[in-house]
Amino acid sequence: EPEVTQTPSHQVTQMGQEVILRCVPISNHLYFYWYRQILGQKVEFLVSFYNNEISEKSEIFDDQFSVERPDGSNFTLKIRSTKLEDSAMYFCASCPADYTGELFFGEGSRLTVL
Amino acid sequence: GESVGLHLPTLSVQEGDNSIINCAYSNSASDYFIWYKQESGKGPQFIIDIRSNMDKRQGQRVTVLLNKTVKHLSLQIAATQPGDSAVYFCAERGDSGAGSYQLTFGKGTKLSVIP
Q1: pLDDT of chain A along its 114 residues, tens only?
Q2: Residue B115 burial (C-beta neighbours within 10 Å; 0-12, 13-18, 19+)
Q3: Measured between CB atoms, does B103 come within 8 Å of chain A?
Q4: Is any Cβ of chain A less than 8 angstroms from the Cβ of B93?
C-alpha cells in the first residue's frame, strides 16, 4: 500500500541551526501539507502546497519556515534559525487530485532543539 | 474564534465493550469531518469520515454520528479491542475558499482498553 515517507525520524539540533525535513508523498498525489504537533498537544496546520506553490499557510508558518518541491518526488520543510519552541513532531501529508478530503499522513519527524 | 474540541481527554473501557468518543465543533461552515487514530510515535491514521449532508456513517466496527443542530460529532467503536488503544482526533474542514484541504484538529482523546 502506498504511503507517505518522512526522513529523518528524529533530528536533534542546536538552537539557531537550520534543519531540513524531507517527505516523499504518495506518487499520484498533488496536494501536500506540513502539520506540526507539539508533545501532548493537537495537530496544527502549517502549510499546504499545490502546483509548485504555497496555497495556504497558518500564522505559525512565518518567515522562519519555507517549503520546496525540488524534484518530482521530494517535498521539504526548512526551518531556519531553530528555536526551543520549534521542538515538535512534524507530519507531512498528501492528498490525491480528486476531492476526497482524506489526508494521508507520514510517520512524522521528531525535531528536538537544544 | 472557531475551534474543534473534545469533551473528554481520556477514556478507559473494558475489552469487548463499546466506546464512544465525542467531539464538539463550532464552525458551522465546516463541510467535512474526519476521525483519526494516532498510536504512540506514529502519524495520524484515517478511520472514518463524514460529510455535512449526512448524519451517520458506518465502517468496520466504527460509526460516526454527526449532529449539526448542536455541532456535535461522535465516534463509536464496537467491541473495543486492545489494538484500539490510541489517541483519537476529530478534524474538520471549513470552507476556506482556497481550494486546499486544510484540516483543523481537535485536542485528542486518549482511549485505553483494559484487557
Answers
A1: 779 999 999 999 999 999 999 999 998 898 999 999 998 888 999 999 988 899 889 989 999 999 999 887 899 999 999 999 999 999 999 988 755 668 899 999 999 999
A2: exposed
A3: yes
A4: yes
